[in-house]
Amino acid sequence: MPLTLDTLPGKEVLSDTLVPSSIWKLLCILLIIVNFKNLPLIWHVRLLNAFRFVLRSERSRTPTSPAQLFQPLITESHGSLMELDYNIHKSNSTYFQDVDIARTHLICTLFSAGIEQARRSKGQGIIGGGNKTFGVALGAVGCSFRKEINPFEKYEMWTRVLSWDRKWIYMVTHFVRKDAVKPKRFSMYPKQKNANAGTRLVDKAEDAIIASALSKLVFKKGRLTIPPEVMLQASGLLPPRPADLALLQTEVYNAPTKSNVAQRIFDIPFGFFEKLDLVWEAARNALLPEPEEQRSQARDGSPDGTAAEKSDQWTWDKVEEERLRGMEMAQKLGGLEGLAGEFTAEADALGKHSDLWWFLGLTY
């Protein structure tokens, strides 16, 4: 008699082992789904999702203005199973990964025009930097925790520019319960739905805050530091400077030119999508011209074509007043640089332990 699965000895035992196998596969798939946010390389995918807003094809049709300089950008996220600590809450250490993503979304959205200029310019001015690659470096970050985030709970990250000096730009990120607070309007994306605008589900706006993070960043072109004020000007976020104030430095804005090999490779996807965007813009404007009402809405950032707070209300003095107010808080983060002096390198130490591998015990 031929040997088949039906005639195989121990058929019942084999069948019993096949069922748990399918269950384990299902559990593995479920585990991947609920922890997708924390899988290897997914952080990089989330970062690339933020990078795309530098592209012209992904930018808002509403031009940036000084009125938007201190407005927050809201980024949504959620807690995952792998982020839990022993208290069954989102671990404090995982907040910083979310801050990276929220901060990148703000930079690529608010500074998209300035980033494009800095990436492609070969000028010798502050924003030129020859053939070097443009980047944003993180100098310091701190976080204050107020409440916990439960497993799989949804939350929002409200990130905005707080202040800047001649080298550093400071950004604050507030972790907020989802839909606990609603902005009055979305100035950069006026077509986005904003139900119950200007309302909140808590007595005070501060009650909706879960945690607050402060970051210090610097714009770089190779080893050259680009002052934040220059990037703000290139991005259309500063009002005209008063005639009695000296310019930070004469800036050279050159036409986009080719750079080194590394940056040309980096620019391939951006250049491809930018060309598609130019073709699409030309075709859309020729075949489907926007009504005057929509053009007015795009300019003013409000459905009725009249912005609640006009850009011309944000004078240089008002921007400077807000910058100085935010600097009082930002300077506290700068004090962390002094901690390097507290490193007791050559003093006695308690000992040395090995992390993760418990069987190694003490390190001898």
UniProtKB/TrEMBL annotation:
Pfam families xref list: 4HBT_2
Start-end of Basic and acidic residues biased regions: 292-315
Residue numbers spanned by region Disordered: 290-315
CDD domains: 4HBT
InterPro entries recorded: HotDog_dom_sf, THEM6_lcsJ_thioesterase
PANTHER family registered for this protein in UniProt: PROTEIN THEM6, PTHR12475
Family: Belongs to the lcsJ thioesterase family.
Identification of the protein by name: Capsule polysaccharide biosynthesis protein
Source organism: Lepraria neglecta
